[in-house]
Design brief:
Oligomer: single chain
Number of helices: 4
Shape: elongated
Mean pLDDT: 87
Low-confidence stretches: none
Strand content: 35-45%
Amino acid sequence: MDNRFLFPLSMLEEMDHGIIREIQITDEYAERIQGMGFFPGEKVEVLKEAPLGDPVIYRLGGTTVTLRREITSQIMVEIQQPFSLQFGQSGQRIIIASLVGGKGFQRKMVSIGVQEGKKFTVLPRNVSHPIVLRTETNQSVLIPYGFASRIKVTLDF
């Protein structure tokens, strides 16, 4: 199974990281973006979102850059592992790498069987619907979409 996932940089959440593969920005902004270090092959990490979600602070090498999602929606990145569960695709076998949230979030996840080191298979779904995982014992676990971005996973090969 291919472990390359290309998504707009604007879709990544805090702590997600990837490698820039394609820049589809018009000439008006292309020079500015390149001046900030955005080139194909560069590693980029999402550090922090503004309280309302825009702009977003990114790290490229040793540089920190703040950009609006309108611009970063035109930068395609290959998502690196671990990645947010929201990017999981049907049929993928995954391992929970970490749960990013407070004690209440962590308790809720543990109560439904989602904890670090556990293995699951991602079941088919529609984009706006909750994510459904199948456990190794063939039980289904429903993950609300908003929670999926706070669950970091790796592929289980």
